Amino acid sequence: MSNPTPTPGIHHVTCVASDPQRNLDFWVETLGLRLVKRSINQDDPSTYHFFFADAEGTPGTSMTFFPWGDTSQGKVGSGQVSRTAFRVPEGSLDYWETRFDEYGVDYDDRVERFGETVLPFRDPDGLPVELVEVEIPADDPTVPWTAFVPESAAIRGFHSVTLWLADPYQTEELLRTMGFEEVGTEQAQGDTPGDERTRFAAAGPVGAYVDVLPTIASGRQGCGTVHHVAFQTPTDDDQASMRTAVRSAGLSPTPQIDRHWFRSVYFREFGGVLFELATRDPGYDSDEPLDDLGGRLVLPGEFEARRDQIEAGLPDVTIPQADSADGDDADSADREPDAEADA
Fold first, then answer.
1. Residue 31 contacts by C-beta under 8 Å, 6 or more apart in sequence?
2. Is residue 314 part of a domain?
3. In this structure, are residues 252 and 267 in contact, taking their beta carbons and an 8 Å threshold?
4. At 94, is the secondary structure helix, strand, or coil?
5. In a domain? residue 3
6. Residue 229 is inside which H or E element, if any?
7. Model pTM?
């Protein structure tokens, strides 16, 4: 069997939230990401699915959420993505700490990790998130969204995810099969002191890193936890070769599933984390103009015929709208009603 086409890195990360309005307010207004798609959970159409990303929904930038309303509080533990980290420009963490103070965001002291400065914080559901200062190259593929946050500080896609695993060995071998290379090990900080964090890197410019930490701490899925992490398999052929490699490693990937904006394959890796393989195409602008991404409730495929029923079961939400296009006037932002949700 030939080796699969290496993944360039993370495609998206999907998490569980509670209140949909609070989720929108935090990820759009406080963190300054663009709502690039407003849809439903295709496996549970009674629930929203929000996609937050850079200005164009570039692969490697989208954090997505299932806001399951009154779902129970989760707990991060073994067999989960324990941290999701985003890239921000060098020198911007002072801005972010000031902003977090203004918005009442729960954050921790900065830490140094593999020569980079990391600012850990939590979203309103307690989801552990991090900002990592990096040099953003001139040819970076991400496009900053500057409605609420200036370009000098805007989030520029994923940096990494951290996996907590009881026995990392088989997962580390799987990551190598997927095209990641081990690039370093250091003592963990702020997670499980005394254990070692091992970093794996893909070749892509965004979302290139997966960190692995051993832990036997128990966890449970619920709001404030990651549901799954998706890795880029840009074309159908790339995905098929990766799926074959995953099967050969002894895992049980699903057949390809059409998710409307990408095509997906899912499997649980050896430590229990749900992995997804996702294509680049068709993309978030395949059913909405780029200028109006997230502007309406999109119901893919068969769900459009059930629009009236689905909309009636979803809570009303309003999307934060900024008065300033430069991120300089975030505090004066107000929200415009979602006409479809109110209809």
1. 52, 149, 155
2. yes
3. yes
4. helix
5. no
6. strand 225-232
7. 0.92
